[in-house]
Design brief:
It is a single chain. It contains no helices and eleven strands. By secondary structure, it is mostly beta strands.
């Protein structure tokens, strides 16, 4: 079992920045990819960014590429999503997720992830 706790959400003006954190506890001795998904009101949950266990490979959705940066610190069992140049369309509940896979794998499909955090709200005002 893995427990994931997100933090760092809030209200920000368009063009601003936020950094989300996700701390993992429990089965952290195994290798696992981490990802962020988001769900905007009235929409399906979508992949935002993912990172391999090693941190060597990251994947981003086209909508956030160049604005968001995902990193991880395995010594702290924590991943960080730096979000810059935020837009109103980034408003959503953001969820981190863990996927126990080999260290060079990161997937973008929601069904691949077995463990989820409770979510943190990001609201971008225009």
């Amino acid at each position: 079992q893995v427990q994931l706790v997100e933090s760092g959400g809030g209200l920000v003006q368009a063009g601003g920045s936020l950094r989300l954190s996700c701390a993992a506890s429990g089965r952290t001795y195994s290798t696992y990819a981490m990802a962020w998904f988001r769900r905007a009101p009235g929409k399906e949950r979508e992949f935002v960014a993912g990172i391999t266990w090693s941190g060597a490979v990251t994947r981003y959705s086209d909508s956030v590429k160049g604005r968001f940066t995902l990193s991880r610190d395995n010594a702290k069992n924590t991943v960080y999503l730096q979000m810059n140049s935020l837009k109103p369309e980034d408003t959503a509940a953001y969820y981190c997720a863990a996927d126990f896979v080999p260290p060079n794998i990161v997937r973008s499909t929601e069904s691949s992830y077995d463990y989820w955090g409770q979510g943190t709200q990001v609201t971008v005002s225009s």
